[in-house]
Write a structure and sequence with these properties.
The complex is a heterodimer of chains A (about 120) and B (about 160). Chain A has about 120 residues and is mainly alpha-helical. Chain A has 5 helices and 3 strands; from the N terminus they run ααβααββα. Chain B contains 4 helices and 9 strands; from the N terminus they run βααββββββββαα. Classes of the chains: A mainly alpha (about 120), B alpha+beta (about 160).
Protein backbone atom coordinates (compact mmCIF):
# COMPACT_ATOMS: atom_id res chain seq x y z
CA UNK A 1 0.00 0.00 0.00
CA UNK A 2 3.03 2.25 0.42
CA UNK A 3 3.76 4.50 -2.47
CA UNK A 4 6.94 3.49 -4.30
CA UNK A 5 8.41 6.95 -3.71
CA UNK A 6 8.63 6.33 0.03
CA UNK A 7 11.87 4.61 0.85
CA UNK A 8 11.88 2.11 3.67
CA UNK A 9 13.97 4.45 5.82
CA UNK A 10 11.50 7.27 5.37
CA UNK A 11 8.64 5.01 6.33
CA UNK A 12 10.35 3.77 9.47
CA UNK A 13 11.18 7.34 10.49
CA UNK A 14 7.52 8.19 9.98
CA UNK A 15 6.37 5.34 12.23
CA UNK A 16 8.91 6.39 14.87
CA UNK A 17 7.61 9.97 14.82
CA UNK A 18 4.01 8.79 15.10
CA UNK A 19 4.84 6.55 18.05
CA UNK A 20 6.72 9.27 19.91
CA UNK A 21 3.96 11.85 19.42
CA UNK A 22 1.35 9.29 20.37
CA UNK A 23 3.29 8.48 23.55
CA UNK A 24 3.56 12.17 24.45
CA UNK A 25 -0.11 12.87 23.71
CA UNK A 26 -1.37 11.51 27.03
CA UNK A 27 -1.11 13.25 30.44
CA UNK A 28 -0.49 10.03 32.40
CA UNK A 29 2.36 9.06 30.10
CA UNK A 30 3.84 12.55 30.33
CA UNK A 31 3.78 12.35 34.12
CA UNK A 32 5.55 9.00 33.98
CA UNK A 33 8.23 10.57 31.77
CA UNK A 34 8.51 13.49 34.16
CA UNK A 35 9.05 11.10 37.06
CA UNK A 36 11.63 9.09 35.10
CA UNK A 37 13.58 12.25 34.26
CA UNK A 38 14.49 12.27 37.96
CA UNK A 39 15.91 8.74 37.68
CA UNK A 40 14.95 5.08 37.04
CA UNK A 41 11.92 3.63 38.86
CA UNK A 42 10.23 0.27 39.25
CA UNK A 43 6.70 -0.45 37.99
CA UNK A 44 5.26 -0.31 41.51
CA UNK A 45 7.08 2.95 42.32
CA UNK A 46 5.59 4.46 39.19
CA UNK A 47 2.11 2.98 39.64
CA UNK A 48 1.84 4.25 43.24
CA UNK A 49 1.61 7.79 41.95
CA UNK A 50 -1.48 7.13 39.84
CA UNK A 51 -5.04 6.36 40.81
CA UNK A 52 -5.43 3.76 38.09
CA UNK A 53 -5.91 0.01 37.68
CA UNK A 54 -2.57 -1.71 37.22
CA UNK A 55 -3.43 -3.27 33.81
CA UNK A 56 -4.31 0.17 32.37
CA UNK A 57 -1.15 1.59 33.82
CA UNK A 58 0.98 -1.23 32.41
CA UNK A 59 -0.60 -0.48 29.02
CA UNK A 60 0.66 3.11 29.27
CA UNK A 61 4.14 1.78 30.07
CA UNK A 62 3.87 -0.45 26.99
CA UNK A 63 3.08 2.54 24.76
CA UNK A 64 6.05 4.42 26.22
CA UNK A 65 8.39 1.49 25.71
CA UNK A 66 7.25 0.94 22.10
CA UNK A 67 7.95 4.62 21.44
CA UNK A 68 11.43 3.93 22.86
CA UNK A 69 11.24 7.09 24.98
CA UNK A 70 11.84 4.64 27.86
CA UNK A 71 13.41 1.21 28.22
CA UNK A 72 12.98 -1.40 30.90
CA UNK A 73 15.13 -4.12 32.38
CA UNK A 74 14.10 -6.99 34.64
CA UNK A 75 16.26 -7.73 37.63
CA UNK A 76 14.92 -10.76 39.46
CA UNK A 77 11.19 -10.18 39.76
CA UNK A 78 11.42 -6.39 39.58
CA UNK A 79 11.09 -4.48 36.31
CA UNK A 80 12.77 -1.09 36.26
CA UNK A 81 12.09 1.69 33.77
CA UNK A 82 14.42 4.44 32.68
CA UNK A 83 14.32 7.34 30.26
CA UNK A 84 16.09 7.20 26.88
CA UNK A 85 16.95 10.91 26.59
CA UNK A 86 18.41 10.80 23.06
CA UNK A 87 15.07 9.54 21.80
CA UNK A 88 13.48 12.92 22.54
CA UNK A 89 15.38 14.35 19.59
CA UNK A 90 12.51 13.01 17.47
CA UNK A 91 10.30 15.79 18.85
CA UNK A 92 12.76 18.54 17.99
CA UNK A 93 11.65 20.27 14.88
CA UNK A 94 8.05 19.22 15.47
CA UNK A 95 6.89 21.10 12.40
CA UNK A 96 9.24 19.11 10.16
CA UNK A 97 7.96 15.94 11.81
CA UNK A 98 4.33 16.87 11.26
CA UNK A 99 5.06 17.81 7.68
CA UNK A 100 6.64 14.38 7.13
CA UNK A 101 3.60 12.76 8.70
CA UNK A 102 1.24 14.52 6.26
CA UNK A 103 3.55 13.89 3.31
CA UNK A 104 3.47 10.17 4.02
CA UNK A 105 -0.30 10.44 4.37
CA UNK A 106 -0.50 12.18 1.00
CA UNK A 107 1.57 9.39 -0.56
CA UNK A 108 -0.96 6.87 0.71
CA UNK A 109 -3.85 9.08 -0.40
CA UNK A 110 -2.37 9.43 -3.88
CA UNK A 111 -1.87 5.67 -4.20
CA UNK A 112 -5.41 5.03 -2.97
CA UNK A 113 -7.01 7.49 -5.43
CA UNK A 114 -5.12 5.75 -8.25
CA UNK A 115 -6.58 2.43 -7.09
CA UNK A 116 -10.08 3.96 -7.21
CA UNK A 117 -9.41 5.20 -10.73
CA UNK A 118 -8.12 1.81 -11.90
CA UNK A 119 -11.15 0.12 -10.37
CA UNK A 120 -13.47 2.45 -12.31
CA UNK A 121 -11.57 1.87 -15.54
CA UNK A 122 -11.75 -1.93 -15.17
CA UNK A 123 -14.53 -3.47 -17.28
CA UNK B 1 -12.74 36.33 0.75
CA UNK B 2 -13.10 36.83 4.46
CA UNK B 3 -11.28 33.60 5.20
CA UNK B 4 -7.76 34.73 4.47
CA UNK B 5 -5.29 32.73 6.45
CA UNK B 6 -1.93 34.16 7.30
CA UNK B 7 0.54 31.50 6.25
CA UNK B 8 3.49 31.49 8.64
CA UNK B 9 6.38 29.30 7.46
CA UNK B 10 7.57 28.91 11.06
CA UNK B 11 4.24 27.38 12.13
CA UNK B 12 2.59 26.13 8.95
CA UNK B 13 3.29 24.02 5.92
CA UNK B 14 1.74 23.30 2.56
CA UNK B 15 2.18 20.18 0.45
CA UNK B 16 1.27 20.24 -3.21
CA UNK B 17 0.82 17.23 -5.47
CA UNK B 18 -0.48 16.39 -8.92
CA UNK B 19 -2.79 13.39 -8.59
CA UNK B 20 -3.49 11.47 -11.76
CA UNK B 21 -7.25 11.13 -11.18
CA UNK B 22 -10.18 13.52 -11.65
CA UNK B 23 -11.25 15.83 -8.78
CA UNK B 24 -14.44 13.76 -8.39
CA UNK B 25 -12.41 10.72 -7.26
CA UNK B 26 -9.96 12.76 -5.18
CA UNK B 27 -12.90 14.37 -3.38
CA UNK B 28 -14.52 10.98 -2.74
CA UNK B 29 -11.30 9.53 -1.31
CA UNK B 30 -10.91 12.61 0.88
CA UNK B 31 -14.44 12.81 2.26
CA UNK B 32 -16.08 9.36 2.37
CA UNK B 33 -15.36 7.48 5.63
CA UNK B 34 -14.97 4.09 3.91
CA UNK B 35 -12.21 5.62 1.74
CA UNK B 36 -10.58 7.64 4.55
CA UNK B 37 -10.10 4.44 6.52
CA UNK B 38 -8.00 2.99 3.72
CA UNK B 39 -5.28 5.63 3.58
CA UNK B 40 -5.33 7.82 6.67
CA UNK B 41 -3.12 5.64 8.87
CA UNK B 42 0.07 3.72 8.06
CA UNK B 43 -0.96 0.05 8.24
CA UNK B 44 2.23 -0.88 10.05
CA UNK B 45 1.29 1.40 12.91
CA UNK B 46 -2.43 1.48 13.40
CA UNK B 47 -5.83 1.84 11.85
CA UNK B 48 -8.80 4.17 11.69
CA UNK B 49 -11.27 2.71 14.17
CA UNK B 50 -14.07 5.11 13.28
CA UNK B 51 -14.47 7.84 10.68
CA UNK B 52 -17.26 10.37 10.32
CA UNK B 53 -17.43 13.46 8.16
CA UNK B 54 -20.50 15.68 7.94
CA UNK B 55 -19.81 17.89 4.94
CA UNK B 56 -21.25 21.20 6.05
CA UNK B 57 -19.92 24.13 8.07
CA UNK B 58 -20.21 23.15 11.73
CA UNK B 59 -20.37 19.45 10.83
CA UNK B 60 -18.35 16.77 12.58
CA UNK B 61 -15.01 15.46 11.44
CA UNK B 62 -14.05 12.43 13.43
CA UNK B 63 -11.12 10.13 12.76
CA UNK B 64 -10.51 7.82 15.71
CA UNK B 65 -7.22 5.98 15.70
CA UNK B 66 -6.47 2.56 17.18
CA UNK B 67 -2.94 1.36 17.77
CA UNK B 68 -2.27 -2.32 18.42
CA UNK B 69 -4.79 -3.61 20.95
CA UNK B 70 -4.87 -0.27 22.76
CA UNK B 71 -8.04 1.78 23.23
CA UNK B 72 -9.30 3.96 20.38
CA UNK B 73 -7.90 7.48 20.50
CA UNK B 74 -10.71 9.86 19.55
CA UNK B 75 -9.96 12.72 17.18
CA UNK B 76 -12.89 15.09 16.86
CA UNK B 77 -13.00 18.38 15.02
CA UNK B 78 -15.28 20.78 13.19
CA UNK B 79 -15.81 21.31 9.48
CA UNK B 80 -15.46 25.00 8.55
CA UNK B 81 -15.84 25.23 4.79
CA UNK B 82 -17.09 22.89 2.09
CA UNK B 83 -17.01 23.60 -1.64
CA UNK B 84 -17.63 20.17 -3.23
CA UNK B 85 -14.76 19.02 -5.49
CA UNK B 86 -12.81 22.21 -4.68
CA UNK B 87 -12.17 22.98 -1.07
CA UNK B 88 -12.51 21.45 2.39
CA UNK B 89 -11.43 23.12 5.65
CA UNK B 90 -11.65 21.62 9.12
CA UNK B 91 -10.06 22.34 12.47
CA UNK B 92 -9.29 20.44 15.66
CA UNK B 93 -9.57 23.74 17.60
CA UNK B 94 -13.36 23.34 17.69
CA UNK B 95 -15.82 20.58 18.38
CA UNK B 96 -18.74 20.09 15.98
CA UNK B 97 -21.23 22.95 15.96
CA UNK B 98 -18.34 25.41 16.50
CA UNK B 99 -18.17 24.63 20.20
CA UNK B 100 -14.84 25.91 21.54
CA UNK B 101 -12.61 22.99 22.47
CA UNK B 102 -9.14 21.71 21.89
CA UNK B 103 -8.65 18.02 21.61
CA UNK B 104 -5.06 17.96 20.44
CA UNK B 105 -1.98 19.26 22.18
CA UNK B 106 -0.97 20.58 18.80
CA UNK B 107 -4.26 21.51 17.16
CA UNK B 108 -4.43 22.01 13.45
CA UNK B 109 -6.54 23.78 10.87
CA UNK B 110 -6.36 21.74 7.67
CA UNK B 111 -7.13 23.29 4.29
CA UNK B 112 -7.46 20.98 1.31
CA UNK B 113 -7.88 22.41 -2.18
CA UNK B 114 -8.49 20.58 -5.45
CA UNK B 115 -8.23 22.04 -8.96
CA UNK B 116 -8.67 20.16 -12.24
CA UNK B 117 -5.45 19.99 -14.26
CA UNK B 118 -5.48 18.11 -17.56
CA UNK B 119 -6.92 14.67 -16.80
CA UNK B 120 -5.91 14.92 -13.16
CA UNK B 121 -6.08 17.08 -10.05
CA UNK B 122 -3.76 19.61 -8.48
CA UNK B 123 -4.09 18.95 -4.75
CA UNK B 124 -2.77 21.21 -1.99
CA UNK B 125 -2.83 20.35 1.69
CA UNK B 126 -2.13 23.20 4.10
CA UNK B 127 -1.75 22.80 7.85
CA UNK B 128 -1.99 25.84 10.12
CA UNK B 129 -0.76 25.51 13.69
CA UNK B 130 -1.06 27.57 16.82
CA UNK B 131 1.96 29.39 18.08
CA UNK B 132 3.94 26.95 20.23
CA UNK B 133 5.09 29.72 22.55
CA UNK B 134 1.41 30.41 23.36
CA UNK B 135 0.95 26.74 24.09
CA UNK B 136 3.85 26.64 26.54
CA UNK B 137 2.66 29.84 28.23
CA UNK B 138 -0.89 28.53 28.58
CA UNK B 139 0.35 25.32 30.11
CA UNK B 140 2.72 27.09 32.48
CA UNK B 141 -0.04 29.40 33.67
CA UNK B 142 -2.16 26.42 34.66
CA UNK B 143 -4.62 26.83 31.83
CA UNK B 144 -4.37 23.08 31.48
CA UNK B 145 -4.45 20.61 34.34
CA UNK B 146 -2.12 21.91 37.04
CA UNK B 147 0.05 18.83 37.26
CA UNK B 148 0.62 18.67 33.52
CA UNK B 149 3.99 19.59 32.24
CA UNK B 150 4.57 21.59 29.09
CA UNK B 151 5.62 19.04 26.52
CA UNK B 152 8.07 21.37 24.81
CA UNK B 153 9.68 22.29 28.06
CA UNK B 154 9.95 18.69 29.07
CA UNK B 155 11.41 17.56 25.77
CA UNK B 156 14.04 20.30 25.98
CA UNK B 157 14.83 19.09 29.48
CA UNK B 158 15.03 15.44 28.47
CA UNK B 159 17.44 16.31 25.67
CA UNK B 160 19.79 17.91 28.18
CA UNK B 161 19.97 14.53 29.93
CA UNK B 162 21.70 12.97 26.94
Amino acid sequence: MDHPRIGKGHHMAQVATDQVFHALANPTRRRVLERLSAGPATVSELADRFDMQLPSFVQHLGVLERSRLVRSAKRGRVRTYELVPERFAVVEGWLAARRREWEARLDRFDAYVKQLKDKEAAP
Amino acid sequence: MTTQSQFNPKLDFAIERFIDAPPRLVWAALTLPEHLKEWYMPRAWGRVARAELDLRPGGIVRIDIAVGDGPDAPNVGCVLEVVPMERLVWTSMLFPGYRPAVFDDIPITAIMTLAPEGSGTRYVFTALHRNEADLATNKASGFYEGSEIAVDQFVAHALTLR
